[in-house]
């Protein structure tokens, strides 16, 4: 009996054609035109803010609007950096301290809670996770009054604790890190258990170092959320010297007329640290988002 040595020709995977079509589309002119338009949508407002901070008051109110100022002046920056009237540097320092402490607290709480929900087996784990996710659909303004009353009972009003603690146990951070922890192979943790490591050692020595991109991403998001927060600091801070930058900049608008160059100069000062920070950590942010798969 003879056996046939002929093999059936291999069939290309269905996704191969899709990938090639995607690569062709990505290299086409329509793709790059779309990227340019999308980039302009984000860049033009930032450029307008920066250039307006160097305009005169008359030039900022002129119609029709022009992108390039007729006369470049540093009057707006001289006003906002006048320490006697507008302690912008002090507000920026307050925002920096609050945002850094808040980010560290978010990472600590989210990492421990996420690891427990991802790896530990206990009764009601899935129910807790579902309830946690459900809180993400509640508008943030609903928590303003309960959090204010809690800060009042704890005597934390007009203190840095009111800026750091609320929101540190947010559902998004727990969800984000849990999904990343689920993508880590269990074999690494099982090997550590055989070597005698406990749960805390596994979390701090194995899981967290591997999860650096996700941790950096979550830390940046928490930092930006706290740095840009405007409503909550106005609620809980009363002393001008304890204001954060977004809340303090609201006083630059004036009582009767808005000085647009001054407001834009303040916004530029608030945006520059964030842009510098993102320039250094964008690689980790992209990697963290790309590797955080959605798993059950």
Automatic annotation (TrEMBL):
InterPro entries: MetI-like, MetI-like_sf. GO terms for biological process: transmembrane transport. It is a multi-pass membrane protein. It is found in: Cell membrane. Residues 92-281 form the ABC transmembrane type-1 domain. Keywords: Cell membrane, Membrane, Sugar transport, Transmembrane, Transmembrane helix, Transport. Its main location: membrane. The chain crosses the membrane at residues 29-51, 91-115, 127-149, 155-177, 215-238, 258-281. GO terms for cellular component: plasma membrane. Residues 1-21 are annotated as: Disordered. Gene3D superfamilies: MetI-like. It holds the Pfam family BPD_transp_1. The keyword Translocase does not apply. This is Multiple sugar transport system permease protein.
């Amino acid at each position: 009996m003879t056996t046939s040595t002929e093999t059936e020709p291999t069939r290309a995977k269905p996704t191969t054609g899709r990938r090639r079509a995607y690569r062709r589309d990505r290299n086409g002119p329509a793709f790059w035109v779309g990227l340019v338009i999308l980039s302009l949508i984000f860049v033009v407002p930032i450029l307008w803010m920066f250039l307006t901070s160097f305009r005169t008051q008359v030039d900022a109110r002129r119609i029709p609007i022009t992108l390039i100022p007729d006369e470049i002046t540093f009057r707006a920056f001289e006003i906002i950096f006048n320490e006697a009237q507008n302690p912008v540097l002090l507000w920026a320092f307050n925002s920096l301290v609050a945002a850094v402490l808040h980010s560290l607290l978010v990472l600590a709480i989210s990492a421990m809670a996420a690891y427990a929900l991802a790896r530990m087996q206990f009764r009601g784990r899935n129910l807790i996770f579902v309830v946690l996710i459900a809180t993400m659909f509640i508008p943030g303004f609903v928590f303003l009054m309960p959090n204010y009353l809690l800060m009042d009972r704890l005597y934390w009003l007009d203190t840095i604790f009111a800026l750091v603690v609320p929101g540190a146990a947010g559902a998004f951070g727990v969800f984000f890190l849990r999904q990343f922890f689920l993508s880590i192979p269990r074999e690494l943790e099982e090997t550590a258990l055989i070597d005698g490591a406990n749960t805390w050692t596994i979390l701090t020595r194995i899981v967290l170092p591997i999860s650096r991109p996700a941790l950096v991403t979550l830390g940046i998001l928490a930092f930006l959320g706290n740095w840009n927060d405007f409503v909550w600091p106005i609620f809980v801070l009363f002393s001008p010297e304890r204001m954060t930058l977004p809340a303090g900049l609201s006083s630059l608008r004036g009582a009767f007329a808005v000085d647009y160059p001054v407001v834009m100069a303040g916004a530029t000062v608030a945006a520059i640290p964030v842009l510098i920070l993102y320039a250094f950590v964008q690689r980790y942010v992209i990697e963290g988002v790309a590797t955080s798969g959605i798993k059950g």
